[in-house]
Structures are given as C-alpha cells and as structure tokens.
Amino acid sequence: MELTWHGHSTWHVSVDDTSLLIDPFFDNPFTSVDPADLSPDYVLLTHGHADHVGDVGAFTDATIVGTPELVGWVADEHGADDTVGMNLGGTVECGSAYVTMHRADHTNGIGTDYEYSAGMPAGYVIGDTVPTQEGDEDAFAFYHAGDTGLMSEMRDVIGPFLEPDAAALPVGDHFTMGPAQAAIAADWLDVDHVFPMHYDTFPPIEIDVGDVEREVAATGSDAEVHVLDGDGSFAFERPYAEE
C-alpha cells in the first residue's frame, strides 16, 4: 500500500492495482498537482465541506463513494454517473481494496450557506483484505479519520475491531482535533504510524506540527509520526517495512 499526501485532507491511496483519492481539494499550499493529471479509480468523500469536495467535479470518470446524500449531490451537481452510496459501518469492495465507513464527529453541510445536508460525516478504513474478527498478520489497513474530534469509538471500535496499522489524523485544531487530542486518538487506535493532516492550510489551523510528535510521545505510544512534504509518498510492503 502506498500513501501520498496532497495537502490538507487529500490523500491518494494505492492498493495493488487500485487507486483511491480521498477528499479532493487541490487549492491548498502543499500541492502543485493539477487535478487533470490524476485518474483515480475511486474517489472517497468524507463530508461535504468545500475544502473536501472542492475538486470532485474533475473526477466524474471515477466511481464516487460516500453517503447516499453526498454522492447524490455529486451526481446532480457534477453529473457523476458512477456512484456508490454507503453508510456508517458498511464495507464495500473497491477493486483490490476493502473500504469501511465509520462516523466522524463533525458537521456536514454542502454549499456556501450549507443549504444541503450530506448525512453523517465519516472516515474510512481502507484495507487489503476484508475486515473480520479473525486476525490476519498479513493484512494492512489505513485509517483516514476525516474531519473529527476525539471520540471514544476510536478506542472501543475502530482500534480493536478494524485494526488500522496507520492513521491520517487531523491536527490543525479549531475545526478538528489539535495535536494533543490527535495524540490520544493515535494511542487509542494503537496504530504504528501516524500521518498529520488538515493543518496550515488556513490561518485558523496553523500549528507547530512538531507538537504532534511530542504529544504522541507523551502518551507513551510507540507510534511513529511521519510529517510528509506536500505530494510526498510513503509506501508499506509486507511485513510493513518502509520502502
């Protein structure tokens, strides 16, 4: 599995021969990518705020995945023909990847005045095998938390049952968790790798990203914090060694 961060909450995830783009928003200071140069197989949307769906119209050739309300809006507004409406707790097979939707603690309006509801905001656990209660040492899963505050489901459900190995967590504070609560989230999730996201895009979410590593260490977690440069990638190969 290879992860590429295009700034803010925009991630490109490759699972074998399947490519997934999460929350396409390229109007941010960390990326130089032109959306027209990307051709993902699937686009996953966590919620309807403009800084998460701003460039979804460039990817209507892909399969759009999200809540029924949100993908319905993409179909109506942008003419997307291939959509998958799913909901919290569900798992769908997306090519070589298995995508499980889980709740996020946030708001979820669409449009300048948030005149439309997009249902519950979400995060996704993306794995290379279907999630089961039987452990699989060869399985690998990446959790994109979406925009969220700290929530006990990370400790009680996502960590012990969906078992992500790596997590992209919002750390910019103000609209989501800040470094201290994101560090608690990493500890509760029991992940080995943490990728900060959703920071330094706008003035309200400017932080010292070094605080994330310090806060994670303060929890006693052994998780490694990876602060990627914009458009930077990180690859995992069984048994999850860096490439």
Automatic annotation (TrEMBL):
Keywords: Hydrolase. Belongs to the UPF0173 family. It comes from the Archaea. HAMAP family: UPF0173. Residues 7-198 form the Metallo-beta-lactamase domain. The keyword Lipid biosynthesis does not apply. Transmembrane segments: none annotated. This is UPF0173 metal-dependent hydrolase DU500_09245. It holds the Pfam family Lactamase_B_3. GO terms for molecular function: hydrolase activity. The keyword Hydrolase applies.
